[in-house]
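for the recovery benchmark. tokens below, seq after
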């Protein structure tokens, strides 16, 4: 046990005496050697006993007599700063004598650690590692690395505080101090032990930046109520929050522990903490892959197909949507839990999208499969196109999360071209509409249309019609080709929306006009990159 020095002997003997496991003892001795924590539990216990036995003759040595300089994590304190007053209320009277070597040896066999509640004992063993890996392998994820996360019971923070106060008092008797932040964190020590084992068993490295997460949630029902006294001492730290089953979250407990005075803590919680009867339990072992993003462009050829599911008051109005026709195939191939669909604008249910199509992106949440070749993506695109005559997709490709921002950035500055079939109540001649071709950069004031007022805030938006080109059909019909600023409401520009859009085609022609058909001919967003399809 070369990492321990004579300065650590009082801590080792004290904590062994009170039912603390070897690895937690190393943490409180500020041992930063990862390999030491990975030693078998029985070997660590044996080494700690040997350490005490071999140094028994030096029991009365004080830190000021040690030849080696003090550990940087343990600082000498002035005598007047010794925390001898911590036991003024009797809370520390349960500390066993550290002078009885045999007692320390006997109590070191306590089955469940009074600090980590077994996290650094049973849950570091190969059986638990295999259990985690079986869960991962059975979930059938694709991954090339992993990040391991662990959720610990909040009462562990309370027990750690009690153990620290115990050690701090003992160190104070020797004129030394141990800062709380100098103790090796339980999560950190656990990951030092578990990472190499998981990595070897799974055959991939641990990587803090990995998108594949393996998580374990621990609980200890036997000691669940140990945090409750903090709610009385620090009520401001425990406020109900949405989606939280209990106010006693780890963050709330840590915040309360930072706020509560040591003497108040010692009035309510035993120091040292008592030894529990049972180990922690692993409530959940979960896997989660970071989202994968797929982008492309879609054409919509149906005038009876919404972009997203059309559901009103829980009732579906139409059987499908652009979103669903594309995503159902992606969900099946990527084996994802769910998806989020976004696009560069949207068309109405009765509007077609032609030309090069409308850019879209789909976020696939927690996908099991993440690796696709260009050929496989091309095959997936073909599968989507073969499944329906209502839509077609092109340029289907994997993209990054950050790249999706390019689809949205400057969206209102982009242009879109439309083709509208217009009806007028009064007869028109070709020369009656010819002047429209000469209008450039026509500024509109568009009050939020009545048809979307239920889902969009009331506002007046300034939009621009860059160019128009008319195509006479008969005395009551003509087609108008428009190039507009993105976000322009074309239908309202035609009929005026009861005067809410000014000017309008109706006001320009000085007659009633309405739109019969509308097609999006192009969405001028240079994304995603064009592929050789």
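predicted aa per position
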């Amino acid at each position: 046990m070369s990492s321990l020095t004579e300065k650590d002997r009082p801590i080792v003997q004290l904590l062994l005496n009170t039912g603390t496991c070897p690895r937690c003892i190393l943490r409180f001795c500020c041992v930063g050697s990862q390999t030491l924590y990975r030693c078998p539990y029985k070997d660590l216990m044996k080494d700690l006993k040997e350490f005490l036995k071999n140094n028994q003759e030096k029991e009365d040595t004080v830190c000021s007599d040690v030849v080696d300089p003090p550990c940087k994590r343990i600082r000498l304190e002035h005598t007047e700063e010794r925390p001898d007053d911590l036991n003024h209320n009797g809370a520390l009277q349960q500390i066993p004598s550290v002078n009885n070597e045999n007692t320390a040896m006997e109590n070191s066999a306590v089955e469940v650690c009074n600090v980590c509640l077994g996290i650094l004992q049973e849950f570091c063993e190969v059986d638990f590692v295999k259990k985690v890996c079986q869960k991962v392998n059975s979930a059938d994820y694709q991954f090339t690395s992993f990040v391991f996360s662990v959720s610990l019971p909040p009462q562990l923070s309370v027990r750690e505080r009690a153990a620290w106060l115990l050690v701090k008092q003992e160190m104070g008797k020797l004129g030394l101090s141990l800062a709380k932040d100098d103790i090796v964190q339980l999560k950190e020590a656990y990951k030092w032990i578990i990472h190499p084992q998981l990595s070897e068993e799974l055959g991939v490295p641990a990587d803090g930046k990995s998108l594949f997460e393996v998580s374990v949630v621990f609980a200890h029902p036997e000691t669940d109520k140990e945090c409750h006294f903090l709610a009385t001492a620090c009520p401001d730290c425990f406020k109900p929050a949405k989606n939280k089953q209990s106010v006693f979250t780890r963050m709330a407990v840590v915040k309360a522990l930072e706020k509560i005075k040591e003497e108040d803590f010692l009035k309510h919680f035993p120091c040292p903490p008592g030894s529990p009867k049972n180990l922690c339990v692993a409530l959940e072992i979960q896997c989660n892959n970071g989202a994968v993003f797929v982008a492309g462009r879609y054409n919509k050829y149906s005038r009876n197909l919404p972009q997203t599911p059309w559901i009103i008051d829980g009732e579906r109005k139409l059987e499908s949507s652009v979103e669903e026709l594309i995503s159902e195939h992606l969900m099946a191939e990527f084996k994802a839990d769910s998806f989020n669909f976004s696009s560069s604008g949207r068309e109405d249910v009765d509007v077609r999208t032609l030309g090069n199509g409308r850019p879209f992106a789909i976020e696939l949440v927690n996908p099991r499969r993440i690796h696709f070749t260009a050929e496989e993506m091309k095959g997936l695109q073909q599968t989507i196109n073969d499944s329906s005559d209502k839509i077609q997709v092109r340029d289907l490709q994997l993209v990054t999360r950050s790249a999706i921002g390019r689809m949205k950035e400057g969206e209102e500055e982009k242009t879109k071209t439309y083709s509208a079939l217009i009806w007028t109540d009064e007869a028109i001649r070709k020369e009656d509409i010819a002047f429209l071709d000469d209008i450039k950069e026509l500024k509109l004031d568009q009050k939020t249309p009545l048809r979307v007022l239920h889902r969009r805030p009331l506002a007046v938006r300034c939009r621009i019609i860059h160019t128009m080109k008319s195509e006479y059909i008969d005395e009551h019909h003509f087609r108008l080709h428009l190039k507009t600023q993105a976000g322009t409401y074309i239908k309202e520009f035609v009929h005026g929306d009861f005067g809410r859009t000014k000017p309008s085609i109706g006001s320009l022609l000085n007659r009633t006009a309405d739109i019969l058909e509308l097609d999006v001919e192009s969405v001028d967003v240079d994304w995603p990159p064009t592929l050789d399809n």
